[in-house]
Write a structure and sequence with these properties.
This protein has 257 residues and is mainly alpha-helical. 61% of the residues lie in helices and 3% in strands. It has a two-stranded antiparallel sheet. The radius of gyration is 21 Å and the shape is globular.
């Protein structure tokens, strides 16, 4: 009797997660619909979310922020920029896949070209050659793809260590994890090391922004929640050229009768 390998088990698990996410997203789950009923709150679990938020803040203050501060002081800025570019390049590949899933083929092709250029000429993305030649980054993920398919953001959730999320983005989280840089390698120690490096490097990039936020936000929880829901629920920053239908002005001969 042949037992499935670890890779086969992970593949089956991913397939089941994808099927579940698609079922819940497209099957009409009312909590994920774009239109919420009048007066419905987007933060129904606020009391619990605030407790988790406070826990995350304590972990950040005690562990992550000191480590990120030491990292930014010890690692030269050009090296940190190269690390940023490498992680961004892996994310570009996942963004390209999501753009195609969203039906945004023109932008998807451009993003694929950016990924290919940086992966080859940019030494696996350490150098951002794509931006130099005019191939700008368009960042997308499975949560935004679900949104393009008609799923609303859903209720706001704060997860321990992972931070702000929503019902829709939580469903997408296992799929986005499969497209993360740490999943490029199939070795547990290497995966953990890449995940830790990415986390520390990202936190180091937001040291000054975090200090400014601490100084200006009367209620940091509310500020972050509103910013997150606005950013994740809006598609105003997405290119609309694939969807735009141009209607000739009235009186134009091409407008027809």
């Amino acid at each position: 009797m042949r037992y499935p390998s670890d890779a086969e088990r992970r593949g089956r698990g991913l397939t089941m997660l994808l099927a579940l996410a698609l079922l819940l997203t497209l099957g009409g789950c009312s909590s994920l619909r774009a239109g919420f009923s009048q007066g419905q709150k987007l933060d129904p679990w606020e009391a619990w979310n605030r407790k988790v938020f406070a826990f995350n803040e304590r972990v950040d203050e005690a562990v992550l922020k000191p480590v990120a501060t030491a990292y930014s002081e010890m690692v030269p800025r050009p090296v940190r920029l190269g690390i940023d570019n490498f992680f961004g390049n892996v994310a570009d590949g996942w963004s390209a896949a999501n753009l195609f899933l969203q039906g945004r083929f023109k932008t998807g092709v451009q993003q694929t070209m950016r990924f290919a250029v940086n992966s080859t000429l940019g030494f696996v993305g350490v150098l951002d050659i794509g931006s130099e030649v005019g191939l700008e980054r368009t960042t997308e993920d499975m949560g935004k793809t679900f949104g393009r398919w008609g799923a609303g953001t859903g209720a706001y959730i704060v997860w321990p260590l992972f931070g702000p999320s929503s019902v829709r983005d939580t469903l997408a989280m296992p799929l986005d994890w499969r497209g993360s840089p740490s999943q490029v390698f199939d070795v547990g120690e290497v995966q953990f090391g890449i995940f830790a490096l990415r986390t520390i490097n990202t936190r180091a990039n937001f040291l000054r922004a975090g200090e400014m936020l601490d100084g200006i936000a009367l209620d940091k929880y509310t500020f972050i929640r509103d910013a997150y829901l606005t950013r994740r629920g809006s598609f105003a920053d997405d290119s609309g050229d694939e969807y735009e239908v141009i209607t000739p002005p009235k009186g134009d001969p091409q407008a027809g009768p």
